[in-house]
Amino acid sequence: MKKLKNEAALLKKAIEIGEKYAMNRGYKGFSATNAAKDKVESLYRLLVNDKLVHPLPADGEDLQSMKHKLAIWISKQLPEGHELLK
Predict the structure, then answer these.
(1) Residue 54: left (phi > 0), alpha (psi -120 to 50), or beta?
(2) What is the pTM (predicted TM-score) of this model?
(3) DSSP states of the chain as a string?
């Protein structure tokens, strides 16, 4: 798995946008006490369910891979020339 430039910032943006997407889909939202790993897993599974992200193989579903998938997803959603893509 090749690490993306600004992957941590892309992940943060993916969680922010993913939460808004989840709320638009009817999810009640995350509370302030939810751990980041729970948010990542929930958003990953929602995006896979909606066929917006290709699923990882069952033996490769770990937190790091899910974070990477979310970073890739948001990098494709951002407009060309966005500061996080530089």
Answers:
(1) beta
(2) 0.89
(3) -PPPTTHHHHHHHHHHHHHHHHHHTT-----TTS-HHHHHHHHHHHHHHTTSSPPPPGGG--HHHHHHHHHHHHHHHSPTT-GGG-
